[in-house]
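User: Show me a protein chain along with its predicted structure.
Assistant: Here is one chain, sequence first, then structure tokens.
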Amino acid sequence: MFEPTLAGRELEARLLAALEEAVLLLRRDQMIDRMPSALEATAKRLYSVRRLRERYFAPDLLGEASWDILLDLYVARAEQRPVSISSACIGAAVPPTTALRWLGNLEEERLIRRYREGSDRRLVLVTLTDAAFEKMSSFLECVSCSHID
């Protein structure tokens, strides 16, 4: 499995920061005012397309469990729907141990957070962090507004 170097992670962080800055400037300059429901629809469409690919290609050839988790959690947050750890694992469309590992990686990167709610303390829920929700929204705006060749 490929493990990025510290320099690679720093470069990736700088590139992501530059992309976020560009999206913020684009929003300000072009006054993009997209309804969250449009972004939610884009996230659902991307997730559906990923599931559709599995009808034609072996899933292990195209696996990106962490991206599936992020898309699923984005839609859930937009719908104000709680997601359990087990539901997030199912949404990742990979074995549970693999999904749990990716959830751990996303949590380390502060893209998701686990929490407990209500009287059943055994139930652990997961959601996108505010920062991750903003990053996903920015990405989905770019995808929704552009023609990718």
